[in-house]
Design a protein that fits this description.
Layout (H helix, E strand, L loop, with lengths): L6 E3 L2 H13 L4 E6 L5 H13 L2 E6 L19 H11 L3 E3 L3 H4 L18 H4 L3 H16 L3 E5 L3 H13 L5 E5 L19 H6 L2 H14 L4 H14 L4 E9 L13 E9 L2 E8 L1
Parallel strand pairs: 1-4, 2-3, 2-5, 3-4, 5-6
Antiparallel strand pairs: 7-8, 8-9
The chain binds adenosine monophosphate.
Length: 283
């Protein structure tokens, strides 16, 4: 029997029926959680999942609980038909596209909070964000019963948070980080890049250039705080006025100091006009 791929399902029950069939046949299952508006970064996660698992679920859900009231929930780019066409081309098995009521039925009252990791960087600037992420991702992990989940290193803090959450809640899933996909000029692909004006798009590559320069300075022995301060100056000189943070931190704990020999990363969030962009690189 030939199946049309991806099978589009909107209910948890329908997804579980498919997954039960796959598991009965001994197949491994990968899940790729997304908010849609799929670009080359998302598709790289899907390709990794297809390479690593027998069956692949891509979830498309613009999760309202990870947006604050003043953020871009209503204007967030959406395009299900185009997303499904991209997934068909790659051969993903199932697209889980629930409505908000399916994920948050009347009376929904539970949230998942990961302490520590969520209190710095993006968590400091967006205090509700990671609670929404941890809650929806724990639901997606439990609903899909996947063996592996693929997340982009572009959202490195999110990778750490969902890994911690799965470990703490004994959800038997392996979180697989996937390298950041970039435009030719270095800008990390993001669904929010479509918001950038032409002028802002032209200066945006300085974000990646700057964090690479900061990483190089730290590798060469400069104090992280001094290297970061220098980076902020470079961003301002290039026309980026609002730097939310530019931090060098332990790549596992996000602490500002780390023991000799442990990996560190440079993390950044900036605002270009109304658009908030993040990125990170290894030191
Ligand atoms: P989003 O739809 O923005 O919630 O992202 C869904 C997944 O795609 C997350 O795991 C992101 O980290 C990942 N992702 C977003 N942008 C990129 C990128 N440029 N390269 C790799 N993964 C990405």
């Amino acid at each position: 029997m030939t199946e049309s791929k991806p099978l589009v399902v909107r209910s948890v029950a329908a997804m579980r029926r498919e997954v039960a069939r796959w598991k009965a046949a001994g197949e491994t299952v990968g899940v790729v959680p997304t908010m849609g508006a799929l670009h080359a970064g998302h598709l790289s996660l899907v390709r990794s999942a297809i390479a690593g698992c027998d069956r692949v679920i891509v979830t498309i859900f613009v999760n309202p609980t990870q947006f604050a009231a003043n953020e871009d929930l209503d204007s967030y780019p959406r395009g299900e038909a185009a997303d499904l066409a991209k997934l068909a081309e790659l051969g993903a098995d199932l697209a889980f596209c629930p409505n908000p009521d399916e994920m948050y039925p009347d009376g929904f009252a539970t949230s998942v909070k990961v302490e520590g990791l969520t209190e710095v960087m993006c968590g400091a600037g967006r205090p509700h964000h990671f609670g929404g992420v941890a809650t929806v991702v724990s639901k997606l992990f439990i609903q899909s019963q996947a063996d592996r989940a693929y997340f982009g290193e572009k959202d490195f803090q999110q990778c750490l948070v969902v890994t911690r959450m799965a470990r703490d809640l004994d959800i038997p899933i392996e979180v697989v980080p996937v390298e950041t996909v970039r435009a030719a000029d270095g800008l990390a692909m993001s669904s929010r890049n479509v918001y950038l004006s032409d002028a802002h798009r032209t200066i945006a590559p300085v974000i990646y250039k700057t964090i690479r320069d900061v990483a190089a300075s730290v590798r060469e022995g400069q104090a992280p705080a001094a290297a970061a301060a220098h980076g902020v100056e470079a961003l301002k000189a290039a026309g980026i006025e609002r730097v939310e943070y530019l931090d060098v931190r332990d790549a596992e704990t996000l602490a500002e100091e780390w023991p000799e020999g442990r990996a560190a990363r440079v993390f950044i969030a900036v605002h270009l006009g109304e658009t908030r962009l993040i990125d990170n690189v290894a030191v």
